[in-house]
Amino acid sequence: MKGKSKYMEGIRSQFPLLNKKVHGKPLVYFDNAATTQKPQKVIDRISTYYSSENSNIHRGVHHLSQVATQDYEDARIRIKNYIGAAKENEIIFTKGTTDGINLIATSLGELMNKGDEVLISAMEHHSNIVPWQLLAERKGITMRVIPIHKDGTLDIETFDGMLNEKTKLVSITHISNTLGTINPIETIIKKAHRAGAKVLIDGAQSIQHGEVNVADLNCDFFVFSGHKIFGPTGIGVLYGKESLLDRMPPYQGGGDMIQRVSFDQTSYNELPFKFEAGTPNIVGGIALGTALEFMESIDTKQAFAHEKELLAYAEKELLKIENLKIYGTSKNKTSLVSFNVGTIHPFDIGTLLDKQGIAVRTGHHCTQPLMDFFSIPGTIRASFSLYNNKEEVDLFIHALKKAISVLS
Ligand SMILES: Cc1ncc(COP(=O)(O)O)c(C=O)c1O
Questions:
Q1: Neighbour tally for 27: CB within 10 Å
Q2: Which residue of 33, 281, 344, 394 shows the fewest CB atoms closer than 10 Å?
Q3: CATH number, domain with residue 124
Q4: Residue 205, ligand 1, Cβ within 6 A
Q5: pLDDT in tens, 333-342
Q6: Is the peptide bond between 249 and the residue preceding it cis, with omega within 30 degrees of 0?
């Protein structure tokens, strides 16, 4: 047990920001579902890129451009291997999860017709709702919502009945950012495929907390953001099956995505460049590769088990508090906990926690329809990562009790 926590503390020591003090108190960073902190390795990689490699990619014959191009493309290969994709041309760099979903809604959406159906779930982030509403306005498709049970699990029976010949796509989150529910995506993918539909998985929350293998899953698309897995903001990934990406029209037009341009006609570049118009976030892509290198360097089995232990411990301690209600009680749950205490507004608790150095998120977590489902304005969400520890959970519980006593 001691050796094990020493190992996890060794991982923690690679994240410099965690040594910070906030309002004179040691920072307890429990907002990992919003974004993760960065290991020194990633921070150094960004600095090295700008101090000794900075150049534009793909177009230059000069040395710097070739080095930057190589590093950027190496990162693509690392990402391909990390998520188990078959080919690197199935890895499209994006700005993040939101951008990836919008790309699919715009491009795949062009191949959809009035009356076609896209299924999402009641626990989706706004970024997996609004792009389909925009597509509904543009193309007359119908967005349908798979309901959930009160414990925050998906209503699979109803989902079964919703699938039909009009279902073109099931676009669903792997893990709920608000409830922590881990959806049975293997089952969902199989059922959707049997009905002839394609499947897009929003992996924003799962990429950090478990092994993802797109080949084993057999999903058609998988999207995630670099900043949720210890990489920079403004970079993300869309994985798509080559056969589908080939059939889809470009998302944006501009440099790099073309083969030949004339005023009469333009032909497009091959994958993945067809979907990567303009100068990309070069350093972001490279540093995301470094973040995955970090993940490969650690014992993820131990790290993920550690996160689960933190969740179990935090939930046990939270449930000892009077009038505290946890939202999202699925047995299969990631390391985050959403809750409210009586009628106290989550924002008030969040503010008093901040004064004690505890960073949690309060509000609707970009899932307003889910808040409507529970008839609440928001929750307090504590989300744990592999660098958090039990002592921090104790500080959090102590600070929470103090906040409640002030507000009651
Ligand atoms: C489940 C889920 N989907 C999508 C997003 C959007 O990610 P981004 O803002 O990085 O594009 C988030 C971010 O919190 C999320 O948790």
A1: 17
A2: 394
A3: 3.40.640.10
A4: yes
A5: 999 999 999 9
A6: no
